[in-house]
């Protein structure tokens, strides 16, 4: 008699175990599941096999080949498309000219197949379905038979009210070749849904045989783990390749060349594959260890399934989880019940992975991280959620509605019940989607939301300066990656979240210690339609209206399809400024321009400014925080050049005080400030550090290296709209065109680059840099800045990206390039040494 093994499924329900393997090849006791089925068939002298393949067929063929090594003969049939279960068998019709048995390649069973075949022959059946009784028949197809064992009814995944039997279809059939008369050629046709109901309708001899013994459909990861538990408990006997050792009270199976330091700490059934080593006092109970694995001393494994080439470091605690091939588990990691770690994943030290989390292949989990949700897309699960005051992730991949709702609940829990928070977003549809989910989480913690809807970020910050809200949050599309969303968290003063605030929210999020409001006490949502008028009044009060009107300025602004295009032009018109607006309409579907499109947009802006003989052109970022200036001749000012321009404008307009700039800003700002009797304060490069420096009474301005400016007399926050107004006010006071402002400023060469560097090496790089700078004049505000007279070089590890920034400045371009190259070579050399 022949047997057909169904081995073509995609295994989607059991992912991520099947990302690189077809489901029948997933290992069970260090052997493919399907090999257990082949041996069951051999036990009943069924050795002529037809394997029906579809998904990743080459893996199955490479393992079984022609079947000789396993004492069987194998014929492979691979349909060209998904034909359904019966349709796939139809493709093998030419090999099945006599009675045959069908069985799935992903079952675990010890049924007596001979009894099934004898029953079929005794009843002269056309088809016999093997049945079994289960406690919960709802997830299976229930089959009802009469006293003669004829099938009378099928119930596909019934409700409890429909259940009239607990016998279900096991997927094991005995069929006569005449069955092919009922299966159409070239159609998608299923046994349960199409063929068997058709036989029932035609009153054909269709029988059900209720088999006794063990049966499990290994359809998902829970069932996969439970199958191992059942084997350990002795509910089914399967072949184990590794030889049994003589130890009283335990079932220990060791493969070839296994190194086992101390077997006394092994309990229950423990299977260890070839060439694996268990070092020192590793505690292992009821677990399977694959081939070429290393488990260090102090590790504790309970009911675990470990595949091949896995390294588990000391102090780890793994409980009822599955670790796939080529995984590295760092020191003192804790992995809870039900966790699946797919292949080629690296888990850092002291990571905690919570119950039932699934980690897809080739992920990196940073040391100290707490993983609470499935890690499917992206490459990394970070130790902390926050990058400064921001959480950033791929939209609908890393930042999903369910993740963001949970985050909103954690954020709301950090505030007293009944408090108010402010929420806003940019014009992007994804921002709206995620903000709504986040707000739902806040409301569930009993905190109220004042929703500013689609509005520029500076308006959110400005409103927070007034009494009423405990904090704020803003959703925007990432400027450097349109597929990502950034969530900006603000404190009650409109400043970026402090690190302690971020840690508090993270603590609640990871521990899931959420406050759930009573059903009568959820938060409520209100809107503030007058907030734009409030901002407009503030911005006009903060500027010299008379001076601006006298200048009769004409400016061109590219609004980048942002909400500022609806808010800002009326403010400028009230100040007597003629505004030519570009891209001022909101385009929710398109989102903002990408980083690649920006240079083209700036060139177009420059041409328009020159053609219209405007006084200036401004490119305003979509969230209205960042600007780029174009002078009346079409020259573009951005980065360090724009910072120099703003400092020069402010000084020439006669304003006195201190200027806050990041540590890597050009030293021309100091030269200009000292000439006018003003001071410069160098800060860390973070937004909050720069803004905090403006809170002193002497502060005039804070300026970043990416076009963001804050004027504390208006608000201590980066505000692109006010910066435009201030630039026009200063230009009116100076009485010169923009192109003349930097004419008398001493020029210096300013260069910067970045070197890729993994986080693990950053500390070592900075130690080497510190040692190298011992005999030099150096400062340590942010990174290490080494001075060579008036020239300098800075080595600054990026806070969130795997790079080290190198900045150099000198009087002459050649000297700056020499400094940059010298420190770049040093960093590369230190990386190799480390």
Automatic annotation (TrEMBL):
CDD domains: MPG1_transferase, NTP_transferase. It comes from the Bacteria. Pfam families: LbH_EIF2B, NTP_transferase, PGM_PMM_I, PGM_PMM_II, PGM_PMM_III. Keywords: Cytoplasm, Initiation factor, Phosphoprotein, Protein biosynthesis, Repeat, Transferase. Coiled coil: none annotated. Gene3D superfamilies: Alpha-D-Glucose-1,6-Bisphosphate, subunit A, domain 3, Alpha-D-phosphohexomutase, C-terminal domain, Hexapeptide repeat proteins, Spore Coat Polysaccharide Biosynthesis Protein SpsA, Chain A. Residues 256-352 form the EIF2B subunit epsilon/gamma LbH domain. Signal peptide: none annotated. Residues 386-515, 534-634, 654-746 form the Alpha-D-phosphohexomutase alpha/beta/alpha domain. It is found in: Cytoplasm, Cytosol. Residues 2-231 form the Nucleotidyl transferase domain. Belongs to the phosphohexose mutase family. This is Mannose-1-phosphate guanyltransferase. It comes from Geomobilimonas luticola.
